């Protein structure tokens, strides 16, 4: 199993918040149906405190997946993460491989799977709360994303209310 780790966001925020971060990495699984006709992140929406480490794990035995932040530095995409945060790209993960990232900057982070974005394999992470200093809300809708992809992002309010949002119809 390959595991990669990167720390993103402001260094001072990381030092100031370790007591509020979740203990151990929080898993986000990359899943798919047996025949590969449907793929998704599980959960698709997640609320976490600043300083939380997320562990993306490919739990799909039939596909490679990525976890890639929407950012101009990565494939020229429109930024959909806080301006002070650094983008991440897991590269292709084979089944049972994992990638870790620690998010410290409060705000909304949208990400996608490179080969499966057109299948709306996207997710949203909400770090902190809107009242946190430096909070940045979701990026506005843009023409570079299909309507189906934009519709797949769970609402920030729903993520904050539930803490975790599962994709519709996921087994």
Brief sketch in words of this structure:
The protein has helices at 11-16, 147-152, 156-162, and strands at 3-8, 26-32, 39-42, 45-48, 52-58, 68-69, 98-103, 107-112, 122-127, 164-165. The chain is mostly beta strands and 171 residues long. It is globular and about 45 Å long.
Read across the widest sheet, the strand sequence of neighbours is 1-7-5-2-3
Biggest pleated-sheet summary: 5 strands, mixed
Q: What oligomeric state best describes the polypeptide chains here?
A: single chain
Question: What is the string of SSEs from the N terminus onward?
Answer: EHEEEEEEEEHHE
In terms of structural class, how would the helical and strand content be classed?
mainly beta
Quick one: how many beta strands?
Answer: 10
Strand content: 25-35%
> Residue ranges: pLDDT <50 for 5 or more in a row?
1-20
Helix residue percentage: 10-25%
Mean pLDDT across all residues, rounded? 89
What is the distance, rounded to the nearest whole angstrom, between the alpha carbons of the first and last residues? 25 Å
Q: Choose one word for the global shape.
A: globular
Q: How many helices? A: 3
Radius of gyration over all CA atoms, rounded: 15 Å
